[in-house]
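Workshop exercise sheet. Pairs work together: one partner reads the sequence aloud, the other fills in the structure field after running the prediction. Swap roles for the next sheet.
Pair: D.N. / O.F.
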Amino acid sequence: MWCIGVLTEEYRHRMYALLELYARPLSAAEPVICIDEKSLQLIGHSREPLPMTEHGPVKQDYEYTRNGTTNLFVAVEPKAGQRIVSITAHRGKVDFVAFVGELLTGTYAKARRVHLVLDNLNIHFKKCFDDVLGTRAAAKLLRRVQFHYTPKHASWLNMAEIEIGILSRQCLDRRIDSRQFLRAEVEAWQQARNALQRTIEWKFTRQDADHKLSQHYVPKLAC
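Structure field:
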């Protein structure tokens, strides 16, 4: 579901910038990486399910146990068909900074410039890197990074949401009772999807935006 607020000049500027970024050809030197996160409740069975037989599917009791919550950070490079998922106990700035750090020093260590697409969650900004690492270390880590933010109330422009939707349907749409089991299942899903190089084909252009949304645009002089 889209959430469309007032389409100000800032909204349009950020939207156009992202659409231009998505239109660029695939580049190993300047990868475009979309990042988002998802909270997940860990749920176990209150009674052992009945296994599948030749006459019927698995049967599980409607009652369940709550085993706490966990967080998944998802980074996807849409045109390369590459995604990286990290499972953490919490979704704080320390966890986010560590996740981005692993991307920059691992998978994308050789990239000349890394474009990170993010929404406006409070842990996604440069200040969090300064707070966690210190100004000097943060500057060193982020020297190759260019941040791109979706407009407020427009996280649909972040392709990581598409990847999270696929992950939810293909892997998470069931009872998962522990972080250990979740990590194993997500790792298997990630490896299989990366091996197939499943890409995301983004078709929404600036022209489409102007055609569909122009009636909601706020005139520049009114901003």
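Discussion prompt: The longest helix spans residues 179-195. What would you look at next?
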